[in-house]
Amino acid sequence: MKHHMSKSPRKLLHLGAVAFAGGALTVAFSSSPAWSAVTAPNLASAAAASVVAATTVTNTGATTLSGNLDLYPGTSVTGFPPGIVGGTQNVGGPVGGPANTASNDVTAAYLQAMAAPATATMNTDLGGQSLTAGVYAASSGLALTGTVTLVGDASSVFIFQSVSTLIVAPASHVVLSGGVQACNVFWQVGSSATLGTTASFVGNILALTSISMATGASLQGRALVRNGGVTLDGNVISSPTCNAVPPTTTTSTTSTTTSTTTSTTTPTTTPTTTPTTTPTSPNTTTTVPALISAPVTGGGPLAPASSGSPWTWVGFMAMLLGGGLVTFEGIRRVMVRRS
Fold this sequence. Notes:
Elements: H1 7-30, E1 34-36, E2 49-53, E3 56-60, E4 64-65, E5 68-71, E6 76-78, E7 84-85, E8 89-91, H2 98-115, E9 120-121, E10 130-132, E11 134-138, E12 142-144, E13 147-151, E14 158-162, E15 166-168, E16 173-177, E17 185-189, E18 192-195, E19 200-207, E20 210-213, E21 218-225, E22 230-233, E23 236-238, H3 248-268, H4 283-286, E24 303-306, H5 310-338
Parallel strand pairs: 2-5, 2-21, 3-6, 3-22, 4-7, 4-23, 5-8, 9-11, 10-13, 11-14, 12-15, 13-16, 14-17, 15-18, 17-19, 18-20, 19-21, 20-22, 21-23
Antiparallel strand pairs: 1-24
Helix pairs in contact: 1-5
C-alpha cells in the first residue's frame, strides 16, 4: 500500500529545515569576536623620563634629553655634563623614591607590551613597509634598514615585539602618517636595542638588557631598560606626550542638523502659486554650511576581546528545534512505510 505524505507533515518538515538553517546563520554571525582597539602599555611615572636604566648611563658629547634621567639601583652616570637633562636627574635613592618607582613602572610596561596578543607576524626587515596599527611579533629579532611608515590616526597604537634584538641601520627612519602619535609606538625588545649613526627613530623602546645610540642618532620617544644600561653619543631624545583627540563628531552632527531644518522649513512656507518669488530668497542656499566628512577614528589591525552573545543561544535553540523536527518527520515516514 502506497502512502502519500499529507500537507501537515510536509509543513512540519519544511518548518524544521528553516529553523535549523536560520539557527545556524544566527550562531555564525552572533558568535564572531567582538573587536577592541590595541591598548597602549602604561608607562606611569616613566612617561616623565627620557632615559631609565638599571646599572649605568654613559654619555659622550652634546646629548640632550627633554625629560628625566632615572637610574636604579645603579648609581653610575657619566657624561652629564656636557650632556643636558631637561627634567630631573634621579640616581639611586631609597625604595619608593623617584628612580625606583620609574624602574618598577618600566618593568610593568615591558610585561604589558610583551603580553599583548599579536595581530601580525613580522619576521622581515621593516624597511620599505607601510604598517597600520596593531601588535607585530617577531620570532627572533627586529631590523630596520631604510624607512618604515606607520599609518593611522591620533588614537592608533603600534606595539612591536622582538624576542631578541632591535637593530636600526645607520640613517634609517620611522615616519608617522595620518596623525599617528609617537607616544603610542612601543618597541618591546627581548635583549638589546641598537640605533645606528644618524638614525631617526620613533617610539618608546622597552629593552630587557641595554640600549645603545650611535653618534647623531635621534629618538622621538624614550630609552627604557629593565636590567642593564644606556649608552649615548651626541644624541637627542625628545619624549612626547599624547594629545587628546578632538571631539569633532558631535560638533559636525549638531551644525548639520540645525542648518538642514532651517532650509527645509523655508521652502514649505512659500506659496506654490507664485514661483517668481522663489529666486528672491537667496538665504536658503547661503545658510547651508559645507558638508564635513566623517572624522577618522580607530584604525589598523584589532585584537579580539570576547565572543558570543544572547543571540548565539537563540541560534542553538533554533538548530535543536529544527533538527528535532526533521528527525521526527524522518522517523515517522520510515514507520509509515513499514506499516
